[in-house]
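dude i think i finally got it to work??
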Amino acid sequence: MSMTLSVKGFIAPDETWKKMKTIWDACIAADIQPPEIVCKFFDDEEPDSEGKEVELPTTKWSDEASEGYELYVSKIPKSVKIIRFYASW
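look at this
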């Protein structure tokens, strides 16, 4: 089993995000599929409480004993408020 390292940015929830989350939660509570527009807004995944996930300007990096990502701080969108680094198996 191999490990995957990921880096994701999150834009804080705004009014649109909060409204879409309310619709999502109501549909899940009613045991029905959320509308397509809501699913697309959340990229067909359960909403993350930190906000809207966005890709960040990263490049894979490695040397003889390590590998990872370089994150270009100057290119991070100003709307990104959280950066999540995580490993998954």
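The chain has two helices and five strands.
im so relieved honestly
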